Amino acid sequence: MSAHSAPAAPASGIRFERVTVAYGKRGESVALDALDLTVEPGEVMALLGPSGSGKTTALRAVAGFVQPASGRVFIGDRDVTALPPHRRGIGMVVQQYALFPHLRVAQNVAFGLKARRVPRGEIAGRVTEALEMVGMADYARRYPRELSGGQQQRVAIARALAIRPGVLLLDEPLSALDAQLRSGMLAELARLHRELPDVSILYVTHDQVEALTLADRIAVMDRARLQDCGTPQDLYRRPRTEFTASFVGNANLLPVTVGGATPGSVRFADTELTVTGADEPGHGPAPGADATLCVRPHLVGLGEGENTLRGTIAEVQWRGSTHRLFVDVAGHRVKADVRELRETPALGQSVALHFAAHDAVLLPAGTAPQATDPAATRAPAPTPAPDLAAAGVAKGAAPGAGGATDG
């Protein structure tokens, strides 16, 4: 490359090809099972799932902190499976900030640049640029102890951005913050995404609000496997499995039998209900099959309507602008989120609920989450001593600097 040519843009986009991570002498404890997933350049992909689902293991496989037992990891067009972390061109932000307490903010942000041997004359400008992006330029000379938790996390993000990565890995970055700070940081991360349209972001979280707010697509993980993947709107409005319906948002899941006296109907207990598309070939379980009816609580109204269910009030929760009603219907608990009621129904009171046919979705039966002993399927990943500094993270700066290992 000539002295006047522009530096190559960092590789963006992530691709997992049948990536399996296993522990134990014979690899009997599987932490990630044959993951196939592509994160497009400039896309925010959220890995969403409960503890032990494999989401953090997937992120660590991209970072180079765990070695796959099989399969390959690509960043851009490069196979990085065997590369060390500092050669992958990634920035990483973990849950516990991992800032050096004895270094000022600017020095913390500069740390990754020095580890990468960026020319001394460039470092000050890139530090200022990164701090300005996260609104922390006025705090450059402070120490971490002089900052709030949200400010420390902003500095950690600035440090990851200073190296100008093509891929940014975020491992539960907001879980240590209180609710108000989380809300503010979500807005900041959304703004950063708009300002960095070429950076691919892999965001690990168990918080559905974070995933729905930030992600272009969500990959739903459970028991070391990818269960579903799609846009937030698709997964919320038209989930494909009971697990997705229950984990991405809240859902009423009722056992039904497809088919009834009228077209597009299903039978729940002794009640016939209508579901849009229930009688269309190839659009769900076949007539006569067992299925699960999914309808979101906010789409269930109080009183009679298109599809009416009758039951008794089991619990009422006031949530400010809404009341959540828990109604026992034919041995099942149905949730309804309704506008704040002037008069709260009494426990045991008989009520009617209703929902529209187009607001319900039919799912295949038997796709609900299963209770398993995580220890039977995987072992906790051994905490490595990776080169966090080269990935834009301060190595050994604070307890938990490597992030969570149970996801």
How would you describe this structure to a colleague?
Residues 367-398 have a biased composition (Low complexity). By secondary structure, the chain is of the alpha+beta class. It has 2 domains: 14-233 and 376-391, P-loop containing nucleotide triphosphate hydrolases (Rossmann fold); 250-364, Nucleic acid-binding proteins (OB fold (Dihydrolipoamide Acetyltransferase, E2P), Beta Barrel), CATH 2.40.50. Helix content is 22%, strand content 30%. It has 9 helices and 20 strands. It has a 6-stranded mixed β-sheet, with helices on both faces. A hairpin with a 2-residue loop joins strand 12 and strand 13. The longest helix is centred in the middle third of the chain and has 17 residues, at 179-195. The radius of gyration is 25 Å and the shape is globular. It starts with 13 loop residues before the first strand and ends in a 30-residue tail after the last helix.
Show the helix and strand layout.
Layout (H helix, E strand, L loop, with lengths): L13 E10 L5 E11 L4 E5 L6 H9 L6 E6 L2 E2 L10 E4 L11 H11 L4 H14 L15 H14 L4 E5 L7 H17 L4 E6 L2 H7 L2 E6 L2 E6 L1 H6 L4 H6 L4 E7 L6 E4 L2 E4 L15 E6 L5 E2 L4 E12 L3 E8 L2 E8 L10 E6 L5 E4 L9 H4 L30
Parallel strand pairs: 3-8, 3-9, 6-7, 7-8
Antiparallel strand pairs: 1-2, 1-4, 4-5, 9-10, 11-12, 11-14, 12-13, 14-20, 15-19, 16-17, 16-19, 17-18
Helix pairs in contact: 2-3, 2-4, 3-4
Distance between the termini: 42 Å
**Average pLDDT, all residues:** 85
Order of helices and strands: EEEHEEEHHHEHEHEEHHEEEEEEEEEEH
CATH first level of the largest domain: Alpha Beta
Computed Rg: 25 Å
Q: Structural class of the helices, strands and pairings? A: alpha+beta
- Structure summary, number of beta strands: 20
Q: Which segments are poorly predicted (pLDDT under 50) over 5 or more consecutive residues?
A: 1-7, 371-406
Main-sheet strand order equals 6-7-8-3-9-10
- Domain count: 2
CATH topology annotation of the largest domain: Rossmann fold
Instruction: Report the principal-axis shape.
Output: globular
Q: What is the annotated CATH architecture of the largest domain?
A: 3-Layer(aba) Sandwich
Helix content: 10-25%
CATH superfamily of the largest domain: P-loop containing nucleotide triphosphate hydrolases
Task: Please count the helical segments.
Answer: 9
Bin the strand percentage: 25-35%
The major β-sheet equals: 6 strands, mixed
